[in-house]
Amino acid sequence: MRILILGPQGSGKGTQAKLMAATYGVPHVATGDILREAIAAGSELGRRVRPIYERGDLVPDELMIDLIRERLADEEGFVLDGFPRTVPQAEALDEMLGEIDKPLDVVLLLDVSDEVALRRLLGRLEEEGRSDDTPDAARNRLRLYHELTEPVVDRYRAVGRVVTVDGEQAVDQVAAAIEDALRVGSRRP
Ligand code: ADP
User: Fold this and answer.
1) Residue 172: how many other CB atoms lie within 10 Å
2) 146 pLDDT exceeds 90?
3) How far is the CA of 127 from the centre of ligand 1 (A)?
4) Is any atom of ligand 1 closer than 6 Å to the C-beta of 132?
């Protein structure tokens, strides 16, 4: 199963992606987690992306595309979370999956309002202490989502591949809605 999950920060994407990965026995490939690990490890990648990450800005497309190409190279299935965030990233993903003839089975969109998203992001500040959940960085990330990632949603929508789920419900309700959506929305039974 190859699933792409899209949605704004605070939509519960990571939570649902982990649940789906466990259900389908595929890896949860989350670019944010990969970058946080690199920052924590102090690797060259980590040192390079840290200031960008902390401002809530986007890491350059080329760097992210190379990272994902390498990460997905030998995977049959995955839940992809956090990539693509820009149209060039989406083009690169379609190209790489096209080359190996392994298209996405479904594109899921978790829909939440900015108000709910921002409230959840700032709540997370206290719980997890993520260095990009400061009020300024959180607002910046949401702004960039609308500006650069929503065109990605429109792109997949134009080819009829997006299944939208209401992300403002409780976690188990969202999970149930996703399960229903996958039964209907996936090309596989
Ligand atoms: P959120 O969705 O809450 O912003 P993520 O954990 O997905 O959190 O991403 C955190 C940060 O990592 C982003 O704000 C950005 O700096 C960087 N990042 C993650 N994925 C990408 C990507 N595909 N392109 C550019 N930057 C990315």
Assistant:
1) 9
2) yes
3) 19
4) yes
Instruction: Evaluate whether residue 112 is within a structural domain.
Output: yes
Q: Is residue 35 part of a domain?
A: yes
Task: For the chain, give the mean pLDDT.
Answer: 93
Separation in Å, CA 133 to CA 31, 56, 117? 16, 8, 12
Average pLDDT over residues 98-117: 94
User: Does the residue 24 lie in any domain?
Assistant: yes
Q: Are 53 and 59 in contact (CB under 8 A)?
A: yes
Q: Within a domain: residue 166?
A: yes
Q: The domain spanning residue 89 has which CATH number?
A: 3.40.50.300
Give the range of the structural domain holding residue 43, as residue numbers without chain letter. Answer: 2-183
Ligand 1 binding pocket mutation candidate from 31, 55, 110, 152 (most atoms within 8 A of CB): 31
Number of domains in the chain: 1
- Ligand 1: residue of 28, 58, 68 to mutate (most ligand atoms within 8 A of CB) is 58
Task: Tokens for 121, please give them.
Answer: 């992001």
CB contact at 8 A, 167 and 108? no
Closest ligand 1 atom, residue 56 Cα: 14
CA trace torsion 81, 41, 43, 145 (10° rounding): 30
pTM of the model as a whole: 0.92
